Amino acid sequence: GEQVEQLPSSLIVQEGASVLINCSYTDSASVYFPWYKQEPGKRLQFIIDIRSNMERKQTQRLTLLFDKKTKHLSLHITATQPGDSAIYFCSASMETNYNVLYFGSGTKLTVEP
Amino acid sequence: NAGVIQTPRHKVTGKGQEATLWCEPISGHSAVFWYRQTIVQGLEFLTYFRNQAPIDDSGMPKERFSAQMPNQSHSTLKIQSTQPQDSAVYLCASSLPDRGYAEQFFGPGTRLTVL
């Protein structure tokens, strides 16, 4: 089955810094890549997604880059705030069953004021 | 809108007992998903339903685990003869009527502890 890996597993930054979270997957049949975040004590929440026919997607302070050749994604968060502190999860799904999400192990981001 | 509702929020069972977890999807959502979250294994897909029909249970352990969706307003995940390794947070999610790639809305989870 699909294997999704995320790096780093955790990072700590000062408020205002930019961060980069990397994600890689193994199965070339994966076509859809939603990202979710989980704030302490709160539910998993969708934040951004990208499909395999795109290279880049941006929403507010989030930019998601996708490289189909290398099977790699990266999430860039700019101007971080303490409220961005959460665990960020990359996921992948396949065209044959795009509702089934395979999640990475998560990246714990801590933004210090 | 309360979102996806899961009950109970916490459940403690003894080894060998049965546990039933409940999920109420967001009204109007036709797809319901179950996931399991542990520190070691992370977030694992278990099973999902669309319009109450089971679509994919490829993540379900072959023994002791079963899921049902008897009506559009709730789904259950049943674990028979619970074992300590079943201890996890079980997450339910739902998504809008099937029109392509759809955001999944997650519930708060049920934390199952098997002693």
Quick one: how many beta strands of chain A?
A: 11
Tally the helices of chain A: 0
**What would the average pLDDT of chain A be, to the nearest integer?**
95
Q: How much is the average pLDDT of chain B?
A: 94
| Spatial separation of the terminal alpha carbons of chain B | 35 Å
Spell out the helices and strands of chain A N to C. Answer: EEEEEEEEEEE
Radius of gyration of chain B: 13 Å
Sheet having the most strands of chain A: 6 strands, mixed
Q: Give the overall shape of chain A.
A: globular
Biggest interface goes to: A-B, 23 and 29 residues
Q: Determine the strand fraction of chain A and express it as a percent band.
A: over 45%
List SSEs of chain B in N-to-C order. Answer: EEEEEEEEEEE
The quaternary organization reads as heterodimer
Structural class computed from helices and strand pairing of chain A: mainly beta
Give a brief outline of the structure.
Chain A is mainly β and 113 residues long.
Q: Can you walk through the features of this model?
A:
The complex is a heterodimer of chains A (113) and B (115). Chain A is built from no helices and eleven strands. Chain A has strands at 4-7, 10-14, 19-25, 30-38, 44-51, 56-59, 62-67, 72-77, 86-94, 97-103, 107-112. In chain A, a hairpin with a 2-residue loop joins strand 9 (86-94) and strand 10. The termini of chain A are far apart. Chain B has 115 residues and is an all-beta fold.
